[in-house]
Amino acid sequence: MKADPAAQRRLLDLAEVDAELARVLHRRRTMPELAEITEAEKTVRAKSDALVAIQIQLDDLDREVAKQEKEIDAVRAREDRDRKLLAGGTLNSKQLTDMEHELATLERRQSVLEDDLLELMERREAIDMDGKHAGVELAKAQETLAEATGRRDENLADLDTNQARREAERAKLIPTLPADLLAFYERRRAQRGIGASLLRARRCGACRIEIDTREMSRIRETPADEVVECQECGAILVRTPESGL
Ligand SMILES: [Zn+2]
Fold first, then answer.
1. Residue 141, class by beta-carbon neighbours within 10 Å (0-12 exposed, 13-18 middle, 19+ buried)?
2. How close is the Cα of 206 to the center of ligand 1, in Å?
3. Cβ of 196: how many Cβ atoms within 10 Å?
């Protein structure tokens, strides 16, 4: 593969742009905010489920309270009716005794029902407190999620800007490179991730492996317009005065 040494050197600019594009892609996939968001979404779901469960308990209790109140009202209405009959003076003594007995029973029943109602109300109050606490927890979790999402979006905007700039640089570089050299570079980049690197101080810039003396002398003797590849990683080795040849 032959290529003008100046064109070979321009490959280094392209490799730098491609490395930056690869970093952008890597950062898009691995930015810590992504894991934070997944975690925060999980927390929001859990807190929201907890709140719904409490709301269901409260609804159940409200129904029980309403039932209990209705029953108390019914007992009270019966007591009122009985008291009226007692006061009416139309009952004989047997009926009076029965009525007094029934009233006493109703009063005991009412007292039990009222105690139960009080207990229900206390339970409701405790669960209502749990609900308020769960609501605060949910709001906190939602805030954490929104905060992480905001940071992710900021990062994405930065990455978009960076990527657009690099892509513009790349679009400018491409027409300056011979098509066959570019295709050669792209094949290596597709296989190894890095298409070309600078040979500097006897090391390949892509794999950082030191090149042995025999290979160095072979490279030294290779004409400048001949494309040299790293024997270790396959990247195009671009020679410049920094190469130490
Ligand atoms: Zn290498």
1. buried
2. 5
3. 28
Q: Are the beta carbons of 7 and 178 closer than 8 angstroms? A: yes
DSSP code of residue 242: G
Question: How far is the centre of ligand 1, averaged over its atoms, from the C-alpha of 227 (Å)?
Answer: 14
- CA of 168 from ligand 1 middle (Å) equals 28
Domain 31-173 has CATH 1.10.287.1490: yes
CA of 215 to the centre of ligand 1 (A): 12
196-237 pLDDT tens trace: 999 998 999 999 999 999 999 999 999 999 999 999 999 999
CA of 236 to the centre of ligand 1 (A): 8
Give the pLDDT confidence score for residue 243 in this predicted structure.
87
- Ligand 1 centroid distance, CA of 216 (Å): 13
Strands of 236-239's sheet in order across: 203-204, 196-200, 236-239, 228-229
Domain boundaries, the chain: 5-23+178-243, 31-173
Whats the size of the chain, residue-wise?
245
Please check whether residue 166 is in contact with residue 24, taking contact to mean a CB–CB distance below 8 angstroms. Answer: yes
* b (16+ CB within 10 A) / e for 199-211: beebbbbbbeeeb
